[in-house]
Amino acid sequence: MDELSTVLKARALINKVAPTGVPVPIEAYAGEIGAVLRKDKSLGPDEAGYSFEKDGRHYICVNANDRPERQRFTACHEIAHIVLGLPSDHEQLPWWSYAKRPLNEILCDVFAAELLLPYGLFKRFVDKADISLAAIDELAGQFETSTTAAGSRFAAVAGFPCAFVLSEKGAVRYASRSTTLRQGKAWITPRMALPAGSVCARLHGGGVCDGPEETAADLWFSSWDRGGTLLEDARHLQQWNQTIALLWFEDEELPPPSTDRSQADEEGEQGLAELDGILPWPGKKRRR
Ligand SMILES: [Zn+2]
């Protein structure tokens, strides 16, 4: 089982339920796979939920003491265990920790985020939203899910280059990148320490920030030869020693590769380009 087949199986279930309203009805997902949803008040604060099979029927129990959006995520995570046929590995860690999360658990989280924030439905909201963690908070509220889940899906469906990065204890645990950023080969090294000079590193070190700040793109992206300046909107979640960040380019485009840039510089040195009758129109992109 890998991430792509996980996503495809989640989308197959979404297509059967075909949710149109927000928040999406998780009872409909459970019903579609013939599972019964129950709430359990006896679970401790680090136990999100579990599922079991009895007389050929699946039962999903979520921690009734958790906040409603957490209960929704747990239910979808358990649906993932059932649909993907992956055994639970909930023993050695609290649900919120990414530091030593087993692959199967990460795949069930990916599946759950797909169900809660279905591609087509969520993309329509993202395309109209501002680009900021505050906008992601608002989307999370509308879809009744966590800011972390909404942020990771925000980057996945965004039509412009952006990434959502989750770090824990000062190291990157998960990065979600938009298609354009992946096509531009902007690679965020898994498990790397928060880059020195980034807003995330400062917040993790006890510093503060109030709003997006400019960060050099090559601080975040490895083997990056396009240069450029990112906007970094970051937040430290003290409770879990996690730092989240949204990264994007201000003009919503990738900087050109360095080879294109040196060619443009050469043309500049050789004087004006030949007149072609096409008036240059000022674009969104600032000239270097
Ligand atoms: Zn699990």
UniProtKB/TrEMBL annotation:
Residue span(s) of domain IrrE N-terminal-like: 34-153
Signal peptide start and end residues: none
Top-level taxon in the UniProt lineage: Bacteria
InterPro entries, per the entry: IrrE_HExxH (IPR010359), Rad_response_metalloprotease (IPR052345)
Segments of this protein annotated with the region Disordered: 253-288
A Pfam entry, by short name: Peptidase_M78
Stated name of the protein: ImmA/IrrE family metallo-endopeptidase
Species this chain originates from: Reyranella aquatilis
